[in-house]
Please model this.
Amino acid sequence: MAVRGPCCDPGSMKWFLVRLLLAAFIVFVLLPSRAGWAMGTRARQPNVVFILADDLGWADLGCYGNRVFATPNIDRFARGGVRFTEAHVCTVCMPSRVGFLTGKNPSRLARLYGAKQPCLATPWDPLPPGEVTYAEVMRAAGYATGHIGKWGVRHWQDQGERDRGFGSCAFTEDWYFLPNYRYPYFEGENHFLDLAAGENPGYLVDAMTAKAEEFMAANRGRPFLLTLSHFAVHTPIEGQGKPELTAAYRERAKAAGITINPDYAAIVESLDASTGRILDRIRELGIEENTVVVFLSDNGGEVNPETKGGIPITSNAPLRGGKATVYEGGIRVPLIVRWPGVTKPGSVTAALTAVEDVYPTLLGIARVPIPEKQKIDGVSLVPVLRGEKESVRETMFTQWQGAVVRRGSWKLIEYPPYVPTAAEIESARAKAAKKKKEFSPPESKRLAIELYNLADDLGETRNLAGEKPELVRELRRELHAWMKDMHGADNYSLDRVREDARKLGQSYPDP
Model:
């Protein structure tokens, strides 16, 4: 029979102390390190990087079906996160940005075209000072906040002394966009913040990316929110691509026997390279597991040629139309989100989204509550990102020269009748003279109601309004109730549209 020494005797005091020390080592040393290893830095609020492209079309990326433009970095990013196929914004820049910043449908903050014309509402005013932006909320919660690039919501100085929550700002222009992508970037009143006069930082997309890298590195030790708001791929396009990329696309198109805008393709590739640099820098800083990256465009791609008789800037096919239209090509955009440990890599969702959903989604990711005084219209997409819900909304509304309601696969558009008044014609003439442009008087437009089933007609080619009168009436009632809510009862009247319809020999059916 084996005889145990006293140190190995389970009943001995020495063995008891050994076990006690071992247990203490596990509890106080190994378990905390294992927990920290398992959670990474997730106990801290996650960093949020919001990359916003300008005028990038739904079909401009490889992960959305494009086989001409080279977008390997964004495609890789999509494989690591969730890709939305039904993301919608407004059809032009400013209202989309108002929606992102406030969480409200831009029509709620709109100035009407003339008195009481609800179908023609468009947000064309500065961001009201009483609105609380997502950046203001996150900065109050301890986030370092930065905005790099395009502001696009009226003149920056119209915001008074407030920076709207973005503590660090660079490359922010007064108005919509800059004259070109290569130095010198600015003319006249357009200027950048945080750029010394005479400095030549190089190609605009690259210079902005470098600033973004600097911001992330400087704030790696605390939660940060970075909005990288590109000017790309907004006009101007001609001559704005990097020459070597433009030449390569020109040769590629010639060899394939296809027609593309080579400068536009080159700018798209530069945007993709920028995204790759951002993703790489996040990994190099060791913050990848605690950084959520959101990629989105502010409206659909511009399909009109930049010059008369020129090559169209891009194509949104199979979608109809493009920027400044309320067809899908103007309002449906790429949206990709990578949230490590939450989003399923390589997943795709058809969840219906609206422009105002960005605000509650960013705050939901950051685990920051929405201020009670900021009454929003948006719905958080966090349950979709977590895979808990297939969708968080059943309807979506938007306006621009017409009003849209989307419910399920059904989409109704109402283009109201419109006859310009003498005052409106003179106003248009004065604006043309001020901008030294040829005057084109506003045109009269007849009432048009269109109904599409996007489930089997993604290109909006078959107007079913005449075949489904009951559905049209139902959706119009819903649409007009929404417009009345957006603009208020005092600003909702159909007198003008009825009179304009009469002048055009039409009748206007009550909703």
Confidence is low (pLDDT under 50) at residues 1-10, 26-42, 187-194.
